[in-house]
Amino acid sequence: MGRLLITLFLIERRRLSKPLLYLSDFIERHKSDYYDLLQRVRTHGEWVPRTRYSLSGVETTAKDAATRARQLLDLRESLLRETKGTKALLDQLLTNPYITISTATRVPGVATPTTIRPVRELEAKGLLRETTGKSRGKVHVASDVLASLERRTTT
Q: Can you give the residue range of the structural domain that contains 121?
């Protein structure tokens, strides 16, 4: 509940426009500190260390989000230079690195009859990888985008 309240407080104070901070990852990586400090608040009323811990989590998470955003923007620019694929399709892959031909046809700005061409071009360049092995209903993943989203940039 506290993780949610911190994010909602920052939105209410106009420090965040959307709930973009994922504090659970920080807390999971520092779980023993989290529980120790929570217990110290309960037993000794020690709010200052707990507050510092929370602020450290917000700072670390915000820096991580900014780093990931920069990485994704750099990756986007690199992909735009490497391909003739539509900008809209690349932007969709940055939103969700998994795509099918069916979902690609619903991307605004992607022409339905030619949707398969940019997907195949990205696959040929190694920017998309087919994951199902099926002949129909193939799911492709933008591995570089997925790696950037999954990479931990700070401790």
A: 83-150
DSSP, collapsed to helix, strand or coil, labels residue 98 as strand
- Using only C-alpha atoms, what is the Rg of the chain? 20
As separate numbers, helices (DSSP H) first and strands (DSSP E) second, the chain gives: 8, 3
Q: Backbone phi, then psi, for 8, in 5-degree steps?
A: -65, -35
Residue carrying structure tokens 């998309």: 128
Identify any residues that bridge with 141 across adjacent strands, giving them in sequence order: 98, 129
Tokens at 59, concatenated: 């700072």
User: How much is the pLDDT for 59?
Assistant: 92
Give 140's strand partners: 99, 130
Whether residue 55 lies inside any domain: the answer is: yes
Q: Report how far apart, in Å, the C-alpha atoms of 20 and of each of 4, 38, 50, 62 are.
A: 11, 24, 22, 9
pTM of the model: 0.68
- Are 21 and 63 contacting, i.e. CB atoms less than 8 angstroms apart? no
